[in-house]
Write a structure and sequence with these properties.
alpha/beta, 2 domains, globular, Rossmann fold, three-stranded antiparallel β-sheet, seven-stranded mixed β-sheet, 280 residues
Length: 280
Amino acid sequence: MQQDETIRREIENMLRQKIGLNPDSVGSRSILRAVKRGMRTGKMQGLSDYWSSLNDSSSSFSSLVDAVVVPETSFFRNRASFVFLRQWVSQYKGRETPLRVLSLPCSTGEEPYSIAIALLEEGLSFDDFHVDAVDISTPIIEKAKQGIYSPYAFRRQAYRDDDKYFSLGWPEGAARSNRATQRYFLDASVREKVCFQQGNILDPWLLSAQPPYDIVFCRNLLTYFDAGARDRAFKKIDQLLRPNGLLFVGHAENNMVDTHHYQPVPYPQTFAYIKHQQAA
């Protein structure tokens, strides 16, 4: 039907306007599958009902975003970045002011918690650093705060029984006779070190009251954006990162960084940049 096609285009345009999503980055079929899932959940008969729900309810739109932008994350994803991070922060040991680190987007928490653990492993104390973590999805933020993970979150590393940051156990209500229901519980001291909040990188006021960060992780987000949204995102990153600060991006975003303002780090498989002192 022509009306349904018009609504589908309007939904894609809404995603573009609100979160800067380039529909081609995920595909129209993926968006349509997410829409149909939302319709089933809301027991809606037609696209017009769903479209009305998107316009009337922020939770409906948030659910759509969660379904379209599926987070791909794990602890210590792209391990080389964390190896270099430890080398980089060694210069901050003993600094009077805490090292400030931002993870954006933080997804379900694996990245910011990996950052905190890496800093602790390098010998920094809990008082030596501060980690902020931001994501557009409120449900994902709430999940991240719990610090409870399935074995899949550790697929890029081996878990040890003597791990000092995690304990293996069962969530409340889970059958303790079933090992498949076991989860990894992050130690409360690490959870409390990461400050989570909901936010959109395209919001010009995002973290505007915060001091600049020494390190920003913004990995595997910019590939979803259209050109205009990408420019706005880089402008926000530039505002958040101090001169001579360190920026981590994803592999697919390595050629998107303005090398007039950012110097590539010559470390294998790292995809990191140092912000020039004279950058705006």
